[in-house]
Design goal:
Protein name: GNAT family N-acetyltransferase
Mean pLDDT: 92
Structural class: alpha+beta
Keywords: Acyltransferase, Transferase
Radius of gyration: 15 Å
Low-confidence stretches: 1-6
Number of strands: 8
Strand content: 25-35%
Largest sheet: 8 strands, mixed
EC number: 2.3.-.-
Helix content: 25-40%
Pfam families: Acetyltransf_1
GO molecular function: acyltransferase activity
Amino acid sequence: MPDAGCRDATRSITLTDGTATRTREATPGDLAPVQELHRRCSLGSRALRYHAGKSGISPAEWRQLSNPERGTTLVTTPAERADHVIAMTNVMRTDQQGVGELAILVEDAWQCRGLGTALAAHAATVARREGHHTLTAAVAASNKPMLHVLQRLDATPTEATGPVLDLRIPL
C-alpha cells in the first residue's frame, strides 16, 4: 500500500468556459452533498454511471466509497462553493494487484465543459500514485461522451457484456 503522505489528491480544474472548480479527496462527511448530487443528476446520467436508475448512495455504500482502504473517492465542487458537490470520481481497488476501477458521475449541468476529461486524467494520476498500473472501467456502449474521455487515456475494450463495455486503461 502506498504511503499515506501520497494521498493528497486536491486539484484545481478550470473548465473550457473558464469556470474554476476544486477536486479533493472525499470524507465520510460528504455523504449529504453526494446524495444531493445524485438528486440533481437525471435518471439518464445515473443509469449511464450505475447501469441502472440508481437514485442515490446509501450510508453503507458511502462508507465503502470513502474508506481509503478500499480506494480513493474524489468530490468536485465549484471553487466558490465547497459544500456543493458537482462530480464524484472513484478509483477503487479490485481483487487484481495493481488494477483499479474508475467511475465518474458529473452533474448534468456541468457536463460537456471538459470536467469529465480533466477528472479522468486526474484519476489516472491518483491511480499511479496509489501503485496501480492499470485502470478498468465498465461503460455503457451508449455512453459516447465517457467512451470519448477514456479513449483520450488510450483505453481499449477488453470485453462486451451486453450493452456494457469493459475497458482497460494502461497507466
